[in-house]
Amino acid sequence: MTKAEIIASVSAVVAALAFILAIANFATGRATLALALFDRRMEVYEAVRKASTLAMNSEREFTENDGLKHLHKALNDARFLFGPEVAEHLNTLWKAGVELQVSRDSPKRKALDAYDKAYGELVDGTVKLQGLLRPYMSMDHKLPWRPIRKLFG
Q1: 131 domain residue, yes or no
Q2: More confident residue, 141 or 106
Q3: Count of CB atoms situated within 10 Å of the CB of 25
Q4: Residues 6 or more apart from 65 whose CB is under 8 A from it?
Q5: What is the span of the domain harbouring residue 53?
Q6: What's the predicted TM-score (pTM) here?
Q7: Is residue 90 in some structural domain?
Q8: What tens digit of pLDDT does each residue of 85-125 get?
């Protein structure tokens, strides 16, 4: 082997290693992005769950412990993190939370019925939200290459 052939061989090996490192860097970047999105999306779910829990404990706890504030934060963040169906559903939950708070302050029987309806919408809506969020909360990025995915299931 001549000196030029050795240099060409070493250059090819170095290029292959650089390519492998670039692929690994790309996979790491995708995984980091997916984890960051997952964290932000989980914050939205936790805010809705917290508001729903406050409503289930008592109407007083919902109004005094910022139940609407949690729903508002979730609604604002969801516009950028999820599709329109999730934002629309969160808007429905927001309206139920507003109705829950407004009906609490009114002493009439009609307000009690409105409270019961809003309470049901908020609690049932939180359960429905889990199904809507499922496609957005997948963690498929963990194993970047298909053969590895098949190997580890």
Answers
A1: yes
A2: 106
A3: 10
A4: 54
A5: 37-152
A6: 0.69
A7: yes
A8: 988 988 888 888 888 777 766 666 565 677 777 878 888 88
User: pLDDT for 45-58, tens place per residue?
Assistant: 999 888 888 888 77
Domain annotation covers residue 97: yes
Domain total for the chain?
1
> What is the tens place of the pLDDT at every residue in 116-132?
778 788 888 888 888 88
Residue 20 has, within 13 A of its CA and on its CB side, a CA count of 6
What DSSP string runs through 58-86?
-HHHHHHTTHHHHHHHHHHHHHHHS-HHH
Longest dimension (CA), the chain: 97
Residue 56 within any structural domain of the chain: yes
DSSP string, 21-37: HHHHHHHHHHHHHHHHH
Query: What tokens were used for 83?
Result: 């599709």
Tell me the one-letter amino acid at 17.
L
109-133 and 84-104 helices cross at what angle (nearest 10)?
160
